């Protein structure tokens, strides 16, 4: 959520962040401020006045709220809540939006760095809504591709089996996590190995995504993996918890 709002504000757009948790909103504001400062320093090397102006103007475009109605006057609503279907459906039921105005926008982490945006055109999505999503995606600097509303869309439908098989290889003792990561980075030209990526995105998120794909497709490649289940149960979510497949210095 934070990175998405940061990207929109950096592109000169007004943003309203809505969350039921006020503490998370406060953390989001601090995180965005930090990211804006980092980008400002990169854009205006050594020019403190321009850096300060960039950060101030961008930050002023962002407001936060715990009330859903504070998003009533926006042109576009982007849902970025927990990957649980019942929670998402509960939110959608509260929105007074006709079906033709719904579509999908799937970003990739880290949002400020990853250039891809999957634009999902549902059966009910109007052409106007679809074009609006495409234009907005381009306005925040993304390369947009289109996919039907199919489980996992393009990338995660292909990435899911890759991630699952990597974990199963580790579980069987076929290779170490370090060697699997090195192999995929040097052998497949990927910027991160599967375990580095899982730790970055969150093992809990990875597990929820696998559960959703298994529920929708019944494909055994997405079936629960004992090692992943055990790690999530132990609170080993990756970078955000300080430990996943690797250990991190949690600040």
UniProtKB/TrEMBL annotation:
GO cellular component: mitochondrial matrix
Enzyme class, spelled out: oxidoreductase
UniProt keyword annotations, A-Z: Fatty acid metabolism, Lipid metabolism, Mitochondrion, NAD, Oxidoreductase
GO molecular function, one term: (3S)-3-hydroxyacyl-CoA dehydrogenase (NAD+) activity
InterPro entries: 3-OHacyl-CoA_DH (IPR022694), 3-OHacyl-CoA_DH_CS (IPR006180), 3-OHacyl-CoA_DH_NAD-bd (IPR006176), 3HC_DH_C (IPR006108), 6-PGluconate_DH-like_C_sf (IPR008927), 6PGD_dom2 (IPR013328), Mito_3-hydroxyacyl-CoA_DH (IPR052242), NAD(P)-bd_dom_sf (IPR036291)
EC number assigned by the record: 1.1.1.35
Domain named 3-hydroxyacyl-CoA dehydrogenase NAD binding: residues: 6-96, 100-150
Protein family per UniProt: Belongs to the 3-hydroxyacyl-CoA dehydrogenase family.
Pathway: Lipid metabolism; fatty acid beta-oxidation
Protein name, per record: 3-hydroxyacyl-CoA dehydrogenase
Residues annotated as site: Important for catalytic activity: 106
Species name: Spodoptera exigua (Beet armyworm)
Major location (coarse): mitochondrion
